[in-house]
Structure formats: structure tokens, C-alpha cells
Design brief:
The protein starts with 8 loop residues before the first helix and ends in a 5-residue tail after the last strand. Helix 1 (9-19) packs across helix 4. It has 2 domains: 4-65, no CATH class; 85-292, no CATH class. It is globular, with a radius of gyration of 25 Å. The chain has helices at 9-19, 21-38, 42-46, 55-79, 84-101, 111-117, 121-130, 145-153, 171-175, 177-180, 228-240, and strands at residues 134-141, 166-169, 201-208, 215-216, 251-258, 263-270, 275-282, 290-292. With 297 residues, the protein is α/β, with parallel strands linked by helices. The longest helix is centred in the N-terminal third of the chain and has 25 residues, at 55-79. It contains 11 helices and 8 strands. The chain has a 6-stranded mixed sheet with strand order 2-7-6-5-8-4. It has a two-stranded antiparallel ribbon with strand order 1-3.
Length: 297
């Protein structure tokens, strides 16, 4: 069978019209009648020539076929996860990401994009099955501080996400935000064509999502750590689901360093301001309420 992913324009058009024969026939007839009425194709009609449909119609059919093909590939990618409960967690992660980033028009890559980038989906699924506290997190990196502030602070303008908290960034975090907005070096990253956010790259990892970090009392050197984007996605997911926030009584270290390596960022939920607060502390700081959420993937 001919692989339509490498088919030429003519084959796409023929296949598209084959999918919707009744619609194609009706449009052909309508276009022919309109053309004859206008007299534009009177000579062709008298000569018995067939009136061809508009190119725009064929383009729309092509776009619909391409969309269905992409959807089928996405379903196939997650279908490799044999455990239905685990597969549902991955499906929910992608659906939730689309909902979270829709207000800023940010497109989310499909699962097959991560497979193409080299992610080991089966290993992630196995780890997720072993530990239900690991959340499947689809997160963008490179959005910039303004986009994240809009998703939190600007959410009150969106009825669907009116329960979201605010986001407070310390001065050191604002100044060095780019250092915290990078994808992890060792993790495969996927991208998607996005006119509004062309520099965004996405990761798919498992992040411990218990109320408090699983590892406590450690300095920043005892990583690895979840990225700032991953922690913010987790907080938005909890808020949109009507659940309590992470780190209501604890702090979580964030990947990346500030001020030439002297400082690192930490995340906490500030109940007094009902906001997720990102502040900075010395990389050697330790304490019973400061911990890490080591990612998997």
C-alpha cells in the first residue's frame, strides 16, 4: 500500500477526494452551476469539459486527512503502553498540557514527536507503573517569564482557570530567568511548529508529585532536580483539578543556577499570598523543609 506520508500532491488530492466522494461531487456540481451562471466557463460547458473543483477545497481535504493521520500516529504511540491505567496517565498528561497552555496559544507536541526525539516511552511507563506518586509531566522550556506570569496571574480572566494561584518571582529569579528556563541536558526534547512561541522545546518526564519532596534536608548539589517549568506545570495541574498545591509547607529545589553559580532557585506555595513563590538561596543551603524531586527520564 502506498505510504501517504510521502505521497505527492496529486496522490493526496486523490485520496482526500476519495474519503469524501459525496461532498466532492456536490461541490463540483455547485461550482459548475455557479460558473455557468456567471458565464465564465460557458465555452467549456458547451464543449462538454468537466468543471474542476477549487484548489481551496482540495487543500481543506488534504488538511483534514493530515490531521487524522497525525491523530492516528499519536494514538498508536501511546498504545504501546500495555497497562491501561498507566496509559491513561500519559493521555491525561497530554490533554492537561493542551488545556493549560491554550490561553497563550502554545501548541503541545504529540506523543510521537517525543518518540522521534529519542525518548524511551516503555521505560517511562514501567517506572510510572512502579510508583504512582510519579506524575507524567509534559512541560515547555523557553517560554519566558512573561508567558508564565500570564498563565498564573492572568488566569483570573479565564473562567475555566479562575482558581489558579498567582506567581511571584524574586528579583534574582527574574534577572536570571533564562538560566532556569532551559530543558534538562540529558533529556530528549521535542518541538512543534508554533508561530507564537517558536523557541519553546518540550520534555516528557516523570516528576515526584507528593505534597512534599521525597528527599529532604539536602543542598542544591544533591540533584538532579525538576526544572522550573515542570514544577509550574505541576502546580497548574493541581489548581485546575481543584486539588491542594504542592509544597504548602516545604520548598523544592529547581534545576539551574543563578548569579554565576552562587545561588539556586527554590519553589514554595505561599498561602498568605495564595501564590507560587520562586526565590533564591545559596547553593549550599540546607534545612529540614528544603528538598528535591528527582526526575525520571
Amino acid at each position: 500500500m502506498r505510504d501517504l506520508r510521502v505521497a505527492g500532491d496529486g496522490e493526496w488530492i486523490g485520496f482526500s477526494r476519495g474519503l469524501f466522494p459525496d461532498l466532492a461531487e456536490r461541490l463540483d456540481r455547485a461550482l459548475g452551476e455557479n460558473a455557468r451562471r456567471d458565464g465564465a466557463l460557458a465555452d467549456d460547458a458547451l464543449a462538454g469539459d468537466t468543471v474542476q473543483p477549487g484548489r481551496a477545497f482540495d487543500d481543506r481535504l488534504d488538511a483534514e486527512v493530515a490531521r487524522r493521520h497525525e491523530l492516528r500516529e499519536a494514538i498508536t504511540a501511546l498504545a504501546d503502553i500495555s497497562d491501561p491505567a498507566v496509559r491513561a496517565r500519559f493521555e491525561d498528561a497530554f490533554a492537561t498540557a493542551r488545556s493549560i497552555f491554550a490561553p497563550i496559544g502554545c501548541a503541545v507536541p504529540e506523543p510521537e514527536s517525543f518518540l522521534a526525539a529519542g525518548i524511551d516511552l516503555r521505560s517511562l511507563a514501567t517506572a510510572a507503573a512502579r510508583d504512582t506518586t510519579l506524575a507524567v509531566v509534559v512541560a515547555p522550556h523557553g517560554l519566558g517569564a512573561a508567558a508564565w506570569l500570564s498563565l498564573f496571574d492572568g488566569a483570573a480572566r479565564d473562567d475555566a482557570s479562575a482558581g489558579r494561584p498567582g506567581l511571584v518571582l524574586a528579583d534574582e529569579v527574574r534577572a536570571g530567568f533564562d538560566a532556569l528556563d532551559r530543558p534538562p541536558r540529558a533529556a530528549p526534547a521535542a518541538s512543534v511548529r508554533d508561530r507564537l512561541h517558536p523557541s519553546a522545546v518540550w520534555t516528557l518526564r516523570l516528576i515526584p508529585a507528593s505534597d512534599a519532596p521525597p528527599l529532604m534536608g539536602l543542598g542544591h548539589a544533591h540533584g538532579p532536580h525538576a526544572t522550573l517549568s515542570e514544577m509550574l506545570v505541576l502546580q497548574l495541574r493541581r489548581a485546575d483539578a481543584g486539588c491542594g498545591p504542592l509544597d504548602a509547607e516545604t520548598f523544592t529545589w529547581v534545576a539551574g543556577e543563578l548569579a554565576g553559580g552562587a545561588l539556586a532557585a527554590r519553589e514554595v506555595f505561599d498561602e498568605s499570598e495564595r501564590a507560587v513563590r520562586i526565590s533564591a538561596r545559596g547553593v549550599g543551603s540546607q534545612g529540614p523543609h528544603l528538598g528535591a524531586r528527582p526526575p525520571v527520564g
